Automatic annotation (TrEMBL):
Top-level taxonomic group: Bacteria
Protein name: CelD-like protein
Signal peptide (from-to): none
InterPro entries reported for this sequence: Acyl_CoA_acyltransferase, BioF2-like_GNAT_dom
Pfam families: Acetyltransf_6
Domain BioF2-like acetyltransferase: 177-298
């Protein structure tokens, strides 16, 4: 028997889940209930959550969504999310999973005009087919990429020897003249967080709108021993910082920032060199994920690009979406 339920808060979903999406059960950071809890609390606090569960025997599918306005539903995700998709429990059966998502999509047809999902990677085919079978008009568009490094057993020395010559020359030249002290911590302290915020305030980055979310992430991962918080300092002054997590053989690069005043000395690149070296030779990761965004510098460090997709679904029963649907479809055709 196939059953679908909806929860209007992440707390309700957690109660229904028990420990099914806790850290011990889910290898991916982006599929854990604590990830969705924190993301909603710190980044979508004024936006209604709409969380769907579909069950069939020992199989479950969960879609974590938000409703930014009446008739519109979006993925509970933002620029911190490396990937978004249905969270599945039970044996990996593609046909059953598609059927579970399809019944959720049918429920969404009752009161929603549009659904937009981003960033989606592996789940794009399943989502597209399930929503279309449920009666939605769906459009898939590539929107950016995610840069990944597969180590395939290489040491840092072997990996580094295969980097572009311009990057190796830069690190060698800047390293010889460097006056920076590099450090990598796996425990967060108030002093380290003050240093982190100080670098962000002097960075080329836009002002960080959700520092509370990053602080909560750093605290959770520090408690779990998976945090890698790196700094380059000139004497006592922090001039570059990077927040990584390392778990289950994967290193995730969440945030980078550096003080613009020190651009010429490349503290961020020197810190990256140290962070990659530790992740590969000490943490023995098998992959490193630079997250979303097609920044040019990432291609020097990484070797594989994964396309990110945005999926837009339109309810054909609502005349108000016919024009937006046509425009979106044309946009997908012309790229």
């Amino acid at each position: 028997m196939l059953v679908a339920r909806e929860y209007r808060s992440v707390m309700e979903a957690r109660q229904a889940l028990g420990d099914a999406l806790d850290r011990a059960a889910m290898s991916s950071l982006f599929e854990r209930i604590e990830w969705f809890e924190s993301l909603h609390a710190h980044c979508f606090a004024t936006t209604e959550a709409r969380i769907f569960q579909a069950l069939e025997g020992e199989h479950q599918a969960w879609l974590f969504l938000v409703a930014p306005r009446a008739g519109r539903v979006s993925a509970l995700a933002n620029w911190y999310s490396f990937d978004w998709g249905p969270v599945f429990l039970g044996p990996p059966d593609w046909t059953v999973r598609r059927r579970l998502v399809e019944v959720i999509a049918q429920n969404l047809l009752k009161d929603s005009a549009q659904v937009d999902l981003y960033p989606v990677t592996e789940a794009s085919d399943l989502l597209l087919e399930a929503f279309r079978r449920a009666g939605w008009f769906g459009v898939r568009r590539p929107m950016g990429g995610r840069h990944i490094l597969d180590l395939n057993g290489r040491s840092f020395e072997q990996y580094w020897a295969q980097r572009p010559g311009r990057l190796r020359t830069l690190i060698s030249r800047k390293g010889r003249a460097s006056r920076f002290t590099l450090s990598i911590s796996d425990r967060l302290t108030d002093a380290l967080w003050r240093d982190y915020v100080a670098v962000h305030e002097r960075s080329w980055k836009q002002p960080e709108a959700n520092l509370s979310f990053l602080r909560a992430l750093a605290e959770r991962e520090s408690a779990a021993g998976t945090l890698r918080l790196g700094f380059a300092r000139l004497e006592e002054q922090p001039v570059a910082t990077q927040m990584w997590t390392v778990e289950n053989g994967a290193a995730l690069i969440h945030k980078l920032a550096h003080d613009q005043a020190f651009d010429g000395a490349s503290p961020g690149s020197l810190l990256s060199h140290a962070m990659f070296a530790q992740a590969i030779d000490r943490d023995h990761v098998t992959t490193i994920d630079y997250g979303t965004g097609d920044n040019g510098y990432k291609t020097d460090w990484m070797e594989r690009r994964e396309t990110l997709y945005r999926l837009d679904f339109f309810n054909p029963r609502r005349a108000s979406v016919w024009l937006p649907a046509a425009r979106t479809a044309i946009s997908a055709l012309v790229g």
